[in-house]
Each structure stands twice: as C-alpha cells, then as structure tokens.
Amino acid sequence: MLKFIEGKKLFIPVTLLLFGYVYSQIGAAGSYVAALPALMVPTAHFAFVLFFFAFTASSLARLAPGNGPRFLMRNRRYIGLNFALVHFTHGALVLSNLMLTDATRTLPVLAVGGTAYVFLAAMTLTSSGAAVRRLGAKRWKMLHKVGSYYIWGIFIATSAEHIVDPGPGTWIPALCLVALGLRIAAAQQSRKRTNK
Ligand code: HEM
Predict the structure, then answer these.
(1) How far is 19 from 30, CA to CA, in rounded Å?
(2) Which mutation among 83, 89, 90, 165 tests ligand 1's pocket best, with the greatest number of atoms within 8 A of CB?
C-alpha cells in the first residue's frame, strides 16, 4: 500500500484531498469568501498531520526501527514538501480572510505567523540535494532544525486554547508534546550510544 504514495506520488492524494475539500466547501458555501471560515482550520489541521510525521521521522526511525518509520525516513523530504503545499494553502486562505473580510490580526501576530512562512519558504526552496551541497550540510541542518522548531512553536501557540479548555482541538497540542518527547528520547538514546 505504501508504495502508492512513495516519493513524489505522495503529492497525488494530498493535492486531491486538499483541493477536493476546498472546492467542495466553496460549492457548499456559495462563494470563496463565505467558505473561508470552513477552510482555515481544517487546512491547518491537515498540514499539522504532515508536519508531525516530517518532524518525528528520524526520531521514530531511531527509537522504533520498522517498515513505517523507514517509509517516513525515505520520504521525509516529500512529506515536508506536501506539508508546505497544504500550509501555504492555509496561508493563502488566512491572507484572503484579512484582505476580503473585516477580520484583523495585530502586527505582532502577523509578524510571528509571517516569520513561520519565511522559514517554510526557505526550507521548501532548500529541499533538494543541490541546495544541501550549495548551503553545506551544517548550515542546511541548522536552517531546517531552527525552522521546524519555530513552526512547532507556532502550532502549539495557535492551539494553546485547546490546552486550557480541552476539546476536539486538543489533539494538536497533545501531539506537539508527543513529538517533542520523541525527539528528546531519540537524542538521549544517541547520546548514550556515543558515550558507550
Ligand atoms: C500570519 C499568519 C497567520 C494568520 C493570519 C493565521 C490566521 C488563522 C485564522 C484566522 C485561523 C482560524 C481560527 C481563528 O480564527 O483563530 C487559523 C487557524 C489555525 N492556524 Fe493559522 N494563521 C497564520 C499562520 C499560521 C501558522 C504559521 C501556523 C502553524 C505553524 C498556523 C496554525 C494554525 C492552526 C493549528 C489553526 C487551527 C487552530 C484551532 O484548532 O483552533 N497558522 N489561523
């Protein structure tokens, strides 16, 4: 089953799901602007699922080697690029919401959220072997580590209300903490191994 979504093929189900959902919501609401409230949260949630697997792939492969984690490691780049596709769609929707409705966000919120998109753009544009060679492995790793932790931080901040008031949205902050736990456990395991 996993071979059907290996590598670039992952774009097919993700693009079909994403644009199928957006199209269906615009049809149901009658217009793009009327559909925005039904589109902004689900696109962020869909993006988070992809982010979770890209962010934890190497930790899962280290802690629980098996077919699933090996698939995640082999396809981490395409999972990351599909995250970018879905999350840039969230970005376009929230920008439309600010431009086409009377919704507002304070400058600090726009700056903090916008910085996540600057990181996401840099990580997307450097998701190739050529970019790793051009940047050098050390700088490439630093960009992708700082960028992914920054985006992790925004996911937990944007869904923090679901920690204070647990409900259907609590799965995002809960999985953010699981992801952090996996990365810490994997780092500790590597440190133990190197100290032996
Ligand atoms: C300047 C950029 C951004 C703006 C203006 C923005 C705006 C919004 C809006 C209007 C919503 C709908 C719910 C609400 O009204 O609060 C939303 C939901 C959400 N956004 Fe963004 N967003 C931005 C960037 C981001 C980034 C970078 C992330 C994550 C890295 C993110 C993650 C989320 C999540 C997880 C939700 C769903 C929250 C929930 O479950 O209640 N957003 N965003």
Answers:
(1) 16
(2) 90
Give ligand 1 pocket residues (Cβ under 6 A). Answer: 40-41, 44, 48, 90, 94, 97, 105, 110, 113-114, 116, 151, 154-155, 158-159, 169, 172
Task: Confirm whether 85 is domain-assigned.
Answer: yes
Give one DSSP letter per residue of 58-114, joined into a string: HHHHHHS-SHHHHHHHHTHHHHHHHHHHHHHHHHHHHHHHHHHSS----HHHHHHHH
Torsion of CA 132, 181, 168, 11, to 10 degrees: 20
Closest among 125, 50, 112, 117 to 80, alpha carbons compared: 50
pTM score, two decimals?
0.94
Distance (Å, rounded) from C-alpha 107 to C-alpha 20?
A: 33
Domain total in the chain? 1
What pLDDT, in 10s, does the model give residues 141-153? 999 999 999 999 9
Report which DSSP code applies to 160.
T
For residue 180, give its domain range.
40-195
